Amino acid sequence: MKKIILLYCIFPIYNLTYSQIEPTIIEGEAQGTTYHITYYDELNRNLQPEISMILVDFDKSVSTYVPNSIISRINTNDGDIKIDKYFKVCFKKAKEIWKATNGAFDPTVYPITNAWGFGPGKKQTIEKKKIDSILNFVGFDLIKIRGNRVVKKDPRVQLDFNAFAQGYSVDVISDFLTKKGIKSFIVEIGGEVYAKGKQPNGDFWTVGIEKPIDNKESQNPLEATVKLENLAIATSGNYRRFVIENGVKYVHHIDPKTGYPTKNNLLSASIFSKQCITSDATATGILVMGFENAKKYFAAHPEIEAFLIYSDEKGDYKTYETPGLKSILAQNK
Questions:
Q1: Banded pLDDT at 263 (limits 50, 70, 90)
Q2: Separation CA 168–CA 90 (nearest Å)
Q3: Residue 15 CA to chain centroid, in angstroms?
């Protein structure tokens, strides 16, 4: 589960003709979550109707919670379905991050995610024999795109883009606002964020990162705040979505190699990049691979920055940040 808290303040300013520019603030629901968008538009347009239509079309493509979506029909082996641009971008990015993380991020883990009760399907009784059986058709090498269609090596292969589709929807709406000529905005969907430019008074857009305290309902205290300008952030953590099985807590990030929820000391990963889809998918992969492997990953991928929260041998919270964050990150004491 991801949680980002918007902390920016809104101030009206005057342009060279002394006409006041007021912020436009729109909110709504999409993808089973909420969105909050603020932008400054000299034409004072209300773009919410168009944004709402984009998000509806987006869900019709890549949401497993929409029974007739493209991804749902692919999962049920509908031979007549053709993919669209949203699906294709998600698939290609997923393949890229799957390779980069050596399989720690893998959208074909969907049947196991469902079995554990973290998807739209009914939770099953977990047995090693059942997990091992499902693992036979988990693997992103078992599926590919050919033209405008998806081809599977095994018809039981299923896809789940929910781990990073919200990040991509942030990019889609950000691109829409940019094409409308808007140069200052922040888009947040389900906790994933992209901010363009600065606020008109010169301030950065600022967001907060929660402390990873077990909590399925309300907002947690902040661990840190970060200033954004032409930058995306996505946070993935294990502290909101979990199940209790025979008295044992299992988090919702599944290791595609074992079929079981991850067991490592990494509690929260906030990833910064130029595209929210990259941040979102990478954050999921980092949660699976764990703290030590994550540090090696960042060394090999200087194009991204990260803020991690993990527990040490004593169970105390510790934090780690890549060097590029030092000028924009402020930790709460």
A1: confident
A2: 8
A3: 36
**Which tokens sit at 175?**
């691109």
Residue with tokens 């808007």, as numbered in its chain: 182
Return the DSSP state at 24. E
Minimal CA–CA distance to 252: which of 71, 150, 113?
113
Per-residue exposure over 4-22, b if at least 16 CB sit within 10 Å of its own CB, e if not: bbeebeeeeeeeeeeeebe
Q: CA dist 84 to 161, 199, 250, Å?
A: 14, 35, 35
CA distance 311 to 316: 5
Written as six digits, the tokens of 49 are 């109707």
- Look-up of token digits 């991928």: 301
Is residue 208 within 8 A of residue 193, CB to CB? The reply is no
For the stretch 10-32, pLDDT in tens is 333 333 332 468 899 999 988 88
φ, ψ for residue 247 (rounded to 5)?
80, 0
Which residues, in sequence order, are CB contacts of 248 under 8 Å at separation 6+?
none
C-beta separation of 250 from 242 below 8 A: yes
* Model confidence, pTM: 0.88
Q: How far is CA 242 from the centre of its chain?
A: 17
> Between vectors from CA 329 to CA 324 and to CA 333, what angle results, nearest 5°?
135
Other CB atoms within 10 A of residue 37 CB: 21
Residue 306 has pLDDT above 50, yes or no: yes
- DSSP for 177-230? HHHTT--EEEEEETTEEEEES--TTSPPEEEEEE-----SSSPPPEEEEEEESS
**3-class secondary structure, 135:** helix
Q: Quote the tokens at residue 285.
A: 């992969």
- The model's confidence at residue 249, banded by pLDDT at 50, 70 and 90, is very low
Q: What share of the chain is helix, strand, coil (3-state, %, to 5)?
A: 30, 30, 40
Helices and strands per DSSP (H, E), number in the chain: 8, 18
Nearest to 230 by CA among 174, 180, 278, 298: 174
